[in-house]
């Protein structure tokens, strides 16, 4: 018995090599595109805020009164004393990282206050003489790695020439927990309530 014969010839060897090479190249290109896409996606995700890098501890409050006694007229002295009298909150910042931490004068650091779970700009009060008053960080700030440094946050104070007891009461009753956000390093620094 004879088997039927086929007139089909096997494909030339070079054609199978071209098909195999094209398939391997396309597969490599797809894998490379997936890797590049994954890296791009991962690097473009928003970074979480690091709340453990810098720790803060409240140390004291004082007033930033200007000495107005050099003015000769009593009305000028009174006007000078009423125009000044910011409160200075002093915090100790501890850098727990292996890198120095800096906040320059041009940094875009935001200070916000926490009211429960809600964060809002640090609007302390509305003063007709000064406009809207916000807390300000005295810059520049430099905190070496694994060290602690004192910083001042300055804010409006409604009672210049007040004694220490009145200041302590004001700070305790009026100042909320403050949060400092540094978008350059993605550090979130919790400044505890005095």
Topology at a glance:
Layout: H1 13-44, E1 54-64, H2 74-83, E2 86-95, E3 101-103, E4 110-115, E5 118-121, E6 123-127, E7 131-134, E8 136-137, E9 141-143, E10 148-155, H3 164-174, E11 177-182, E12 187-191
Antiparallel strand pairs: 1-2, 2-10, 3-9, 4-5, 4-11, 6-7, 8-10, 11-12
Description:
The chain has one domain: Sandwich (Immunoglobulin-like), CATH 2.60.40. The protein has a four-stranded antiparallel beta sheet with strand order 1-2-10-8. The chain has a four-stranded antiparallel beta sheet with strand order 5-4-11-12, with no helix packed on it. It is built from three helices and twelve strands, in the order H-E-H-E-E-E-E-E-E-E-E-E-H-E-E. The chain is α+β, with helices and mostly antiparallel strands and 194 residues long. 27% of the residues lie in helices and 35% in strands. About 5% of the residues have low confidence. It is rod-shaped. 13% of the residues are buried. The termini are far apart.
